[in-house]
């Protein structure tokens, strides 16, 4: 199966570099490019790519607005944000807009390929560096002192799963921690996302920190 890609970045050299890297792989095809968020939405409508590699700071329409429009109008298209450490607030906005993954622009080719394939498969991805930065930001701004009423919908095991997920554990690692099969963990994750009205694991991480289920800097 070929994964059809749209490259959205206002820097032409970045798009050229990405296209050259991705052209080396038979299962990846760049079907369109866009220099701003408005063009990204237009090209998505025209080509219906599987994955959009989205820059955040762009002219006319920024990446957050474009991500929200794409995920609302074309839910089968997944958005992978390429970000830098200086864009914390943009990352938060893109999470809420429905982005499925976040990767730093200085990531290796292997990490980029992994990220594209992960989000295309329907899963979500936060690079460890971006996750750490999100947590640091939560620590600076503070969160509510108690979970929201929505958290009360979760069973005890779903709550445990959410907490471990928010700490960056994979399904396999969560399973080992809770002494259950990985398939059971996947079931818990699907259930808690449905109950909380969240799109994916990325939004689940944000929900856990915003609702004090996990506190930045706390490991227990």
UniProtKB/TrEMBL annotation:
<keyword id="KW-0238">DNA-binding</keyword>
<dbReference type="GO" id="GO:0000160">
    <property type="term" value="P:phosphorelay signal transduction system"/>
</dbReference>
<dbReference type="InterPro" id="IPR058245">
    <property type="entry name" value="NreC/VraR/RcsB-like_REC"/>
</dbReference>
<dbReference type="GO" id="GO:0003677">
    <property type="term" value="F:DNA binding"/>
</dbReference>
<keyword id="KW-0805">Transcription regulation</keyword>
<dbReference type="InterPro" id="IPR011006">
    <property type="entry name" value="CheY-like_superfamily"/>
</dbReference>
<feature type="domain" description="HTH luxR-type">
    <location>
        <begin position="147"/>
        <end position="212"/>
    </location>
</feature>
<dbReference type="Pfam" id="PF00196">
    <property type="entry name" value="GerE"/>
</dbReference>
<feature type="modified residue" description="4-aspartylphosphate">
    <location>
        <position position="55"/>
    </location>
</feature>
<dbReference type="InterPro" id="IPR001789">
    <property type="entry name" value="Sig_transdc_resp-reg_receiver"/>
</dbReference>
<dbReference type="InterPro" id="IPR016032">
    <property type="entry name" value="Sig_transdc_resp-reg_C-effctor"/>
</dbReference>
<dbReference type="InterPro" id="IPR039420">
    <property type="entry name" value="WalR-like"/>
</dbReference>
<protein>
    <submittedName>
        <fullName>Response regulator transcription factor</fullName>
    </submittedName>
</protein>
<dbReference type="GO" id="GO:0006355">
    <property type="term" value="P:regulation of DNA-templated transcription"/>
</dbReference>
<feature type="domain" description="Response regulatory">
    <location>
        <begin position="4"/>
        <end position="120"/>
    </location>
</feature>
<keyword id="KW-0804">Transcription</keyword>
<keyword id="KW-0597">Phosphoprotein</keyword>
<dbReference type="InterPro" id="IPR000792">
    <property type="entry name" value="Tscrpt_reg_LuxR_C"/>
</dbReference>
<dbReference type="Pfam" id="PF00072">
    <property type="entry name" value="Response_reg"/>
</dbReference>
């Amino acid at each position: 199966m070929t994964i059809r890609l749209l490259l959205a970045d206002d820097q032409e050299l970045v798009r050229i570099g990405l296209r050259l890297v991705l052209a080396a792989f038979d299962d990846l095809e760049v079907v369109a490019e866009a220099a701003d968020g408005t063009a990204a939405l237009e090209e998505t409508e025209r080509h219906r790519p599987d994955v959009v590699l989205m820059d955040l700071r762009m002219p006319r329409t920024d990446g957050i607005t474009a991500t929200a429009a794409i995920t609302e109008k074309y839910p089968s298209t997944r958005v992978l944000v390429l970000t830098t450490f200086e864009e914390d607030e943009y990352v938060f906005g893109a999470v809420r807009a429905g982005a499925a993954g976040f990767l730093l622009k200085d990531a290796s080719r292997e990490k980029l390929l992994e990220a594209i394939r992960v989000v295309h498969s329907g899963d979500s991805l936060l690079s460890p560096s971006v996750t750490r930065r999100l947590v640091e930001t939560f620590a600076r701004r503070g969160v509510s002192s108690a979970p929201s009423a929505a958290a009360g919908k979760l069973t005890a095991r779903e709550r445990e799963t959410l907490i471990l997920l928010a700490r960056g554990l994979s399904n396999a690692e969560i399973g080992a921690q809770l002494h259950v099969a990985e398939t059971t963990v996947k079931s818990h994750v699907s259930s808690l996302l449905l109950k909380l009205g969240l799109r994916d694991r990325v939004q689940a991480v944000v929900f856990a920190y915003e609702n004090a289920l996990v506190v930045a800097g706390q490991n227990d």
